[in-house]
Amino acid sequence: MRKIFLYVFSAFVSIISIDNANAQCVVVNGQNIGPDGKPCINTIVSAVPFLRITPDARSGAMGDAGIALSADPNAIHFNPSKLPFSESEMGVAMTYTPWLRALGLTDVYLANLAGYRKIGDRQAVGIGLKYFNLGSINFTDEAGVPLGTGRPNEFEISATYARKLSSNFGLSLSGKYIYSNLAAGQQIGSVTIKAANAFAVDFGATYITQTNFSGIKSDLALGLAISNIGSKITYTQSINKDYLPQNIGIGAAWNFHIDEYNSLTFALDINKLLVPTPVPAKLTDSNNNTIPNPEYDKNGNSIPDYKEKSPISAALSSFGDASGSEELRELTYSAGAEYWYDKQFAVRAGYYYEDNTKGARKYFTVGLGLKYNIFGMNFSYLVPTTNQRNPLDNTLRFSLLFDFAPVKEEATPVTE
Length: 416
Description:
Layout: E1 2-5, H1 6-13, H2 19-22, E2 26-28, E3 31-33, H3 57-60, H4 75-78, E4 90-98, E5 109-119, E6 123-133, E7 137-140, E8 146-150, E9 153-164, E10 169-181, E11 187-188, E12 191-192, E13 196-213, E14 216-230, E15 247-257, E16 262-273, E17 282-284, E18 290-292, H5 311-317, H6 326-329, E19 331-341, E20 345-354, E21 362-372, E22 375-383, E23 396-404
Parallel strand pairs: 1-7
Antiparallel strand pairs: 2-3, 4-5, 4-23, 5-6, 6-9, 7-8, 9-10, 10-13, 11-12, 13-14, 14-15, 15-16, 16-19, 17-18, 19-20, 20-21, 21-22, 22-23
């Protein structure tokens, strides 16, 4: 089991800002520049980040791209508006993801269960359950005195409704309940930590058209996903609350039907968190003196101004609250390819990119898929891209899927 000091936990649950990282930054032409002349690290932070973890081995093998991929039960996470376009009447998927194994943690994992059912040809409903187990933790105070053992965990329950508005276009609406228990009952000074709860909604849209490229039949799908728009969250009674990982993503997937046995899909997702860019509390002036940042807390209530916005206001303002090119650096990119042979065997690969100042996650992914009758199995592996140790190195995902296609009635022989 792991030990954790409560003052460290306090820093975690309050999503400590990047004040220390930005303390050596100088404002130059509206941008925070570090001593090395490069933009300062200014990672966007939110509560319950497990909501943005890819719970699916198929997309996990394609650089986390999934907004416009062909529908399966895991569309509930990425973009449920694809579900009415599914070739199957009903589907169920289960995924297990060991998490942060590169840090030596053996009891941290993400489990995901998702299922959907089509209603006629134009509608679909679905449910999803995502459970994040953070393992067993021994709590201690700053002096190392044991304060008990806990098993932090978080989960999300979601329900979705999707409908085709035409043969090419569909929309979806999802509602979800989020629960996070990181150290309920523990105390930091006189402050008691409690479990956190939140509610949120997701919106999705999908457009699919058939094309002909150099004589090869293909399907081009475009998707839009807006997720986790909901109430702010806190682990104490404090009015200083944190945002959910609100997000907007656009995706495209181009599926080429090469011949009767071979198909190839290319997918690209671009995502952006709809969360305000953090404003550092302190900066360094041109004389190398640390000074308060006048933009940090204008009303003097000890709460950063960027954290006082409503979720909707924060989402709207997030498109223009960073200066210069920093706004573009907040975009993440997922690109992947998938090859199927005879709709039974798949090979996948992808790449994920995040700017160095916004988290610096960069990795290749690979994976395999097998499908036989109604049963499917997917596997993905995250490939390290640098010699530096990364907590996500060698991440594995395993998915089981059951797709129940419509039963086709056999023609009755005609007798004379």
